[in-house]
């Protein structure tokens, strides 16, 4: 293949992707092109636009979402805590064992 063939490559795809790339908006985030125009904050649903302007409404929405959470029971929390502690003990023992073994190996190799 010659160098001339590489120059003849169709670049329409590259131009299309460049056209889709829209400069960054005021807030430092990239806006997206929608149907030939740039999407702005005005295109967002009302509740997401006003969350910044109304912190009380935002906190009420947070509380509503937290009420939907299925919280673990006391027995589940005790079980999960025990599992985590056992895992930590196991991993600590494993890392300590590998560290001790590697240290002994280095001593053997370098005849300290």
UniProtKB/TrEMBL annotation:
<keyword id="KW-0812">Transmembrane</keyword>
<keyword id="KW-0653">Protein transport</keyword>
<dbReference type="GO" id="GO:0006605">
    <property type="term" value="P:protein targeting"/>
</dbReference>
<feature type="compositionally biased region" description="Basic and acidic residues">
    <location>
        <begin position="38"/>
        <end position="50"/>
    </location>
</feature>
<dbReference type="GO" id="GO:0065002">
    <property type="term" value="P:intracellular protein transmembrane transport"/>
</dbReference>
<comment type="similarity">
    <text>Belongs to the SecE/SEC61-gamma family.</text>
</comment>
<comment type="subunit">
    <text>Component of the Sec protein translocase complex. Heterotrimer consisting of SecY, SecE and SecG subunits. The heterotrimers can form oligomers, although 1 heterotrimer is thought to be able to translocate proteins. Interacts with the ribosome. Interacts with SecDF, and other proteins may be involved. Interacts with SecA.</text>
</comment>
<dbReference type="GO" id="GO:0043952">
    <property type="term" value="P:protein transport by the Sec complex"/>
</dbReference>
<feature type="transmembrane region" description="Helical">
    <location>
        <begin position="77"/>
        <end position="98"/>
    </location>
</feature>
<protein>
    <recommendedName>
        <fullName>Protein translocase subunit SecE</fullName>
    </recommendedName>
</protein>
<dbReference type="Pfam" id="PF00584">
    <property type="entry name" value="SecE"/>
</dbReference>
<keyword id="KW-0472">Membrane</keyword>
<dbReference type="InterPro" id="IPR038379">
    <property type="entry name" value="SecE_sf"/>
</dbReference>
<keyword id="KW-1003">Cell membrane</keyword>
<keyword id="KW-0811">Translocation</keyword>
<dbReference type="GO" id="GO:0005886">
    <property type="term" value="C:plasma membrane"/>
</dbReference>
<dbReference type="InterPro" id="IPR005807">
    <property type="entry name" value="SecE_bac"/>
</dbReference>
<comment type="function">
    <text>Essential subunit of the Sec protein translocation channel SecYEG. Clamps together the 2 halves of SecY. May contact the channel plug during translocation.</text>
</comment>
<feature type="region of interest" description="Disordered">
    <location>
        <begin position="1"/>
        <end position="51"/>
    </location>
</feature>
<keyword id="KW-1133">Transmembrane helix</keyword>
<dbReference type="GO" id="GO:0008320">
    <property type="term" value="F:protein transmembrane transporter activity"/>
</dbReference>
<keyword id="KW-0813">Transport</keyword>
<dbReference type="GO" id="GO:0009306">
    <property type="term" value="P:protein secretion"/>
</dbReference>
<dbReference type="InterPro" id="IPR001901">
    <property type="entry name" value="Translocase_SecE/Sec61-g"/>
</dbReference>
């Amino acid at each position: 293949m010659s160098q001339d063939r590489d120059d003849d490559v169709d670049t329409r795809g590259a131009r299309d992707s460049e056209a889709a790339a829209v400069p960054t908006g005021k807030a430092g985030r990239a806006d997206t092109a929608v149907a030939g125009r740039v999407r702005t904050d005005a295109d967002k649903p009302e509740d997401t636009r006003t969350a910044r302007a109304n912190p009380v409404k935002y906190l009420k929405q947070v509380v509503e979402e937290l009420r939907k959470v299925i919280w673990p029971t006391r027995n589940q929390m005790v079980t999960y805590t025990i599992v985590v502690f056992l895992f930590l003990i196991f991993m600590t023992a494993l890392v300590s064992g590998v560290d001790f073994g590697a240290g002994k190996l280095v001593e053997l190799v370098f005849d300290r």
